Write the structure tokens for this entry.
Amino acid sequence: MEVIGPAIGLATLPADQSFVGCEAVATWNPPTPTGICGPFTLTSNYEPGDTFDIGVTEVIYTLEDTLNHTVTTSFTITVTELVPPQFDCPVSPIKVNTSGAVLQDISAFLMATDTTSTCDGVDLQFLYPIATDNCSDPIVTQMDGPLSAEVFNLGTHNLVFQAQDDAGNTTLCSVEVQVLPLLPVNPQVSDVIACDGDEVTISANVISGATYTWDGPDAPYPDNNNLLIPSLNEDLTGIYTVYATINGCKTPLDSALVRIGHLPVTADDLDYEVGTNETLANFNVLLNDTYELDDYTVTLSSPLDGLIDHGNGIFSFNAGPKNTTYSFFYTLCSKTCPDLCDIGTVSITARERICAFIPNIITPNGDGVNDFLIIPCLDMEPYPDNQLIIFNQWGQKVYEAAPYSNEPDKAWRGTLNGISGKDLPDAPYYYIFKATPEDSGLKGFVEIFR
Ligand SMILES: [Ca+2]
Ligand SMILES: [Ca+2]
């Protein structure tokens, strides 16, 4: 006979529980069976005091009587963990070149490098960065960028690593790797200038494990980073080139120009002119000289009152009141080879600027001396609006020029109106000369005497 009673069940069900941490110990009071007479069994997949891992765990109670009636109930234990892993992320950027040289890797991220056959990339090996977590060892994976032992081409590569803990928290670590080309070895003295017989050394940067290939006027040369020229002469001047070979990869070619110091050659400067009591400013006595622009020194050899030395062959001169010619000397040398020098002469003629003087005689007999009329001030300044008129002793105009010129083919040679062959007779002639239209005019006599 079956006894009908209240349905069997479970009362005072445990509530869901939540914890924060890597794991949690949870306790609860088991549910109470109701409406059931013994014997019965109450079973559960967890017991109070059990340790629960991260995540949601369902605790299930099953009540069963001897007639195999069962009732189940459950609740959840949730363990939450929010602390992400921490990376020991290498310092970026990491720099390597195509010879496999590690130029910058502060955290020693790279394990090994190797060249490639084409020298346009580099083979790099590395270990994943280390990550730690508050709960357990996180799992590190590479999300982006070339893998270890792959070829890294020229350029910048971004390696991205992810660490993930048991709770699914993640942290990223980015590593920038720059693959650089080989640079020229840069001879440290790009241009060498030295003297005949000097010992000259051209130096290229020292690169560990490199061999150097030099070329030049007297090739072949030893494969050192230094090239020695024991005694320089003209035949050994010229372009020297060098490249370095590192792990089978070559640097670009670089070059140095080797020159020899030369003897400067001066040309005299005799034609400077200045008005009396005036300044001839900033004249350069080197303009007509032959020398090397980056290898010279110039010094004043003889002082002169009124002369100002501005350096580099540039002078100014304050002339005095006298109509006279001043001279001084300068010495031009090779800076590299100070024994190679030449001396230059400079002359400056000071003349009164006003046109107060006209010669009083000309001798146009064709002997080349004093054959025509020279008005000295026109040599100093052209006075383009000057005017010269010449009269004979009867007041008749025999010549006029506006402007008058001292040029031999234009100047007055004692002819009527300047016409060749129409010689005027030997006699004194009267002239009026105006340097400018406003000039009151310089008047006097000039005699023709053949
Ligand atoms: Ca964690
Ligand atoms: Ca000169």
